[in-house]
Amino acid sequence: MGSLPHIVEDCLGIVQLFSDGSVSRSDDVKFPMEVQDDGSAVWKDCLFDKEHDLSLRLYKPRSPSAAAAAALPILYFFRGGGFCVGSRTWPNCHSCCLRLASALQVLVVAPDYRLAPEHRLPAAVDDAFTAVKWLQSQALLSDDGGADEWLAKGSVDFDRVFVVGDSSGGNLAHHLAVELRRGSPSLAPVRVRGYVLMAPFFGGTVRTKSEAEGPPEQFLNIEILDRYLLN
């Protein structure tokens, strides 16, 4: 008689991988921080991928400045998490997007994406591309009034879109830049004007100097990432 499945990897108690390949992902996360919300921005959730049940969170200034009120630029924010943890709902991501919307006077789009090890790469990359294609569909619907009210014609500027990614989100931003190319012609009438990669998380079959010589990490180390991110 075989032994019962046992935990072989445990990431902060949030994700546990068992010996039979099954995965347990906890929704009961003890956050060391609270949401920082001064009321200067508002937000709501939208489903952007029905097939994979993926949503994104929209943020905008509660009272846009006179200069921005006519048409807000759009900023995509792809959060980090080593491709294995995180959500648009987590306090660190939510607080960051609230501040970005208010301080920059932009409409922020913060998509979720499928997580490893249940969904190995390039699933997250595919989801990032689906998220920006969703914006294109909204832009095309805006001409006849069919878009989400926050993306109605004249309320946002589809010609001024920027993509920001943090850590693994920076990796997604990089892949979007490669896929969409300069001027993002395949997204017309949406135009991506620039990409910002904040401490982007990259890896490959050939080790970089920092990977080969850097100190080992307790969580999301090279060995774990090699095993559970890639097919």
TrEMBL record:
Q: In which family does this protein belong, per the annotation? A: Belongs to the 'GDXG' lipolytic enzyme family.
**Where does this protein come from, organism-wise?**
Erythranthe guttata
| SUPFAM superfamilies assigned | alpha/beta-Hydrolases
Gene3D superfamilies named in the record? alpha/beta hydrolase (3.40.50.1820)
Q: Which residues form the Alpha/beta hydrolase fold-3 domain?
A: 76-214
Supply the InterPro entries for this chain.
AB_hydrolase_3 (IPR013094), AB_hydrolase_fold (IPR029058), Carboxylest/Gibb_receptor (IPR050466)
Q: GO molecular function: any one?
A: hydrolase activity
The protein in question is named Alpha/beta hydrolase fold-3 domain-containing protein
Q: Per its UniProt record, what Pfam families does this chain match?
A: Abhydrolase_3
